[in-house]
């Protein structure tokens, strides 16, 4: 008897520390495998708690390429439910956000509760002795929340969320200090698509190297203080740390990395003087006003959490993989739930200035990403280099591989996790 | 059909306003951003909102919320040659039609219209649909745009990053 051995493709071998094959952006088989081995297996960010503020609130999104509903039920528990009726597979919710008592499939009106239980079947006599409603809830993903950020996973055996976040947790805490003691609130979302693979975007969040080149026009449009804050190319305090599990942090403005620490030397930007005057007139103490102003541009770093969410300077950045060569990006403006509304309005204006399909920054990023996708198809086996700064990488006191913010330490961390997950059988 | 709509079809003040909207479309297709900027009054706002229903753009997140200063910066960005997306921007052809008149006087005309913008870049065609609102200030010295709101029909979903204006 003869046997034919069919080895499964060893996609994990296509990433090798300081380089990855261009094929990782272009091969539909790899994309399909990534859905199975990464997006269905690890924690995927789905919502911020402020997006679903009350019992009955919900939001629809995706985990990998699968449609889900994130709900807050009557017990204020967060649920992530596959948006697929158990009867014939139609989506049971078609709205982006809203408030509901439950979800009813429009096809045959099977209805479900906010936590996914099958509540009602019309004309049930045909199902007597055939269907027990307890056996047909909406498929429910494991859902856990940390500091208001909600993640879900299809993997019942996944490690606890906080273990997965690991050393990223410290940076999440620092990031959220920009809310100045108030709860963080999502103020709105820019959504756009580019014609490229999701990992091209994943790389970008801790890529300080591209910033002065790609965003020259934005740098020319902001005041001198803001431009100076983002002039990190020669700043030795601007570093990138690999945090483990694919996570990394790129610190562009070290003086803002912990907003609780203020040495008093930074001058408040003249562009915010009208706000200073308003807040002082309203009786806010000067140290508090200073805190608000220093938090205006965010936290001074980009925290990239594998595989799909970043806390980026002053906003959340979400990537949604649509297909091997199409990716959706959400830039979610955040502000304070409470505190002076004028601060939130100013944050909206700052966000609009850079982000979104008509911002002064996002379209230029997308131009680069589109071209990577096209160019990488030129010779899919030729490696993409992520080796910048290897020669000067060191281990920090915390034990993190560390190099300059313009180095590709963060990408190497992401691809290390990618390789590990894609090598699993 | 409303009285204002009927009036609009024959009113020369409305025709002046429509002519200005078409001039704006021509300048944007030609990427003549300096010419485009000159069509606006000093206190004009140019807005592309995300929320299709709100008129409170100041407290909402928008795709564009430009006063005079931001329009100036935007025109600089689009023309200075440093923005890769603007340098490689798609070619566009837009059609503005289906005008209705919301307001007309000797000094102000407010028009609503539909715009279909066709773009072409790197072998890909795209269509952007939008509802436009223009408030036009009429003056013997030259008519100008005092407000433009472009409501994209897909504003709440993913919009392709753009190197041009709508």
TrEMBL record, chain A:
Q: Does the keyword Chloroplast apply?
A: no
Q: Which Gene3D superfamilies match?
A: Naphthalene 1,2-dioxygenase Alpha Subunit, Chain A, domain 1, Rieske [2Fe-2S] iron-sulphur domain
InterPro entries linked: Rieske_2Fe-2S, Rieske_2Fe-2S_sf, Ring_hydroxy_dOase_asu_C_dom, Rng_hydr_dOase-A
User: Which cofactor is recorded for it?
Assistant: Fe cation
Annotated ranges, domain Rieske = 43-152
Give the UniProt keywords, A-Z.
Answer: 2Fe-2S, Iron, Iron-sulfur, Metal-binding, Oxidoreductase
The name under which this protein is listed is: (2Fe-2S)-binding protein
Q: Which organism is it from?
A: Williamsia phyllosphaerae
From TrEMBL, chain B:
Family matches, as Pfam families: Ring_hydroxyl_B
Query: Looking at the record's lineage, which domain of life comes first?
Result: Bacteria
Indicate whether RNA-binding appears among the record's keywords. no
Q: Key word Metal-binding present in the record?
A: no
Please provide, alphabetically and separated by semicolons, the GO molecular function terms listed in this UniProt record: dioxygenase activity
The record's Gene3D superfamilies line, in alphabetical order, gives: 3.10.450.50
This protein is called Aromatic-ring-hydroxylating dioxygenase subunit beta
Q: Taxonomically, what lineage is the organism?
A: Bacteria, Bacillati, Actinomycetota, Actinomycetes, Mycobacteriales
Q: Which UniProt keywords apply?
A: Dioxygenase, Oxidoreductase
Q: Which organism is it from?
A: Williamsia phyllosphaerae
Which InterPro entries did the record assign?
A: NTF2-like_dom_sf (IPR032710), Rng_hydr_dOase-bsu (IPR000391)
- Similarity comment: family membership: Belongs to the bacterial ring-hydroxylating dioxygenase beta subunit family.
